[in-house]
Amino acid sequence: MDIKGKRIYDTLKKMNYIRLSTTEGEQKGAKVIADEIRDIGLEPSFEAFKVPCYEIIKVKLEITEPIYMEIEAKGYGYSGNSAKDGIEADFVYVESAEDIDLIGVEGKIVMVSSMGYEVYERLAKAKVAGFIAPSGDYFDDPKKTDLDERMLRKGHTDYGQIPGVCIRMKDAVKIIKASPVKARITLEQKEEEGDSGNILTQVIGTKYPDEVIVYTAHYDSVVFSKGMYDNASGSAILLELLRYFVKNPPLRTVRFIWCGSEERGLFGSKYYVKDHEEELKQIRLCINVDLAGPVIGRDTAIVIAEDKLCHMIEYMYKEVGHPMSLRHDIYSSDCIPFADKGIPAVNFVRYGAPGAVSCHTRNDVLEPISAKSLENTTRFIAQFSNRVVNAYMFPVEKKIPDDLVSKIDKYLRKKQLKDD
């Protein structure tokens, strides 16, 4: 089987820079992929779409009473703007954002331990004036770690915009120890739309061209991160699989989609399923690759399909001698919009051992990744692909089990949106 780990690794080197959604870095990453597709002998297509984006113009967090402190902070994207001279209000530490924690917080600036959809909804309904959310580890070295840059998503802002900032965990502890009475948040940001896009190509099936297996991987990264693990690795693996199918024409059509702006909220895959609604009838399976390559880690298949596919993969990895793990569950990546449309999916992931690789930080770099590890994962995906793409009868029923449908609905917040 002509799968070359060095070739995959060399592609990672070409993408070794920050590829944040809607920026020049993401565009540069798209060009690398398009050029590789042309080198393989196919012509890529680029489907552009608009993505919400923001620019933080000014952010400042101050404790104003009983002592004055100015704390390093990052503004939450899409959380709106304060008054020009800031919002000054009483300070409250909210431990859990339960009802008992939120008595009397209207009009105040609150610090929360963590920020999720439910927490934000409760803060909005409690009519707080602003929020502070800590991030990272108390023992982080500021010289070696970046303060998170966070943003609200539509599930948050459906309840309105509350100006908010993110601070380091060590500073959060420092603030609470000082028993603050008042705080001031100054936040100015500009919201607009930026350009992103998906790169597509395909190899037409020789016998069943109207039956399509879709391969997805996202090529954008987060702020600060070169994203070698998440997810230049998956993007490079898709290129290697494409090479394989060009040399070994499949019975069914294999379509490859490198998705833009996944890190902003699965925008690329959401755009694809919305813009290609009629074509979804032909798609039998989505194979998503997200996180691969760490030297020390464990390959895992996460299956969003009938349990028969779990059994098939288990039998196969035992048959070919490829150690891996298996989960019957959803996975937060570009497979979700496809699964939401009733298309079964399998995600191939190589989870790094704790401390062996980093994700969503400046430490997501090339060094902990190896050509051998990339090759081993890709080889198994290719073997699995051969079984399903070239099957006498397609072995995966186009059906998502009810329990996984419920999880997808919860992930996409369908019930909450309906109730609202």
Molecular structure report:
The protein has helices at 5-14, 24-40, 117-125, 154-157, 169-177, 228-247, 267-275, 307-320, 335-340, 371-389, 402-411, 414-419, and strands at 45-65, 69-71, 74-75, 87-94, 109-112, 130-135, 164-168, 182-203, 208-218, 252-259, 283-289, 297-304, 325-328, 345-352. The protein has 420 residues and is α/β, with parallel strands linked by helices. It folds into two domains: 5-52 and 194-415, Aminopeptidase (3-Layer(aba) Sandwich); 67-180, Glucose Oxidase, domain 1 (3-Layer(bba) Sandwich). The relative contact order is 0.16.
Q: Just give the CATH class of the largest domain.
A: Alpha Beta
Shape: elongated
Order of helices and strands: HHEEEEEHEHEHEEHEHEEHEHEHHH
Mean pLDDT: 96
Helix content: 25-40%
Distance between the termini: 53 Å
Query: How many domain modules?
Result: 2
Uncertain stretches = none
Please give the count of helices.
Answer: 12
Strand content: 25-35%
CATH topology of the largest domain: Aminopeptidase
Number of strands: 14
CATH architecture tag of the largest domain: 3-Layer(aba) Sandwich
CATH superfamily of the largest domain: Zn peptidases
Q: Describe the main β-sheet briefly.
A: 14 strands, mixed
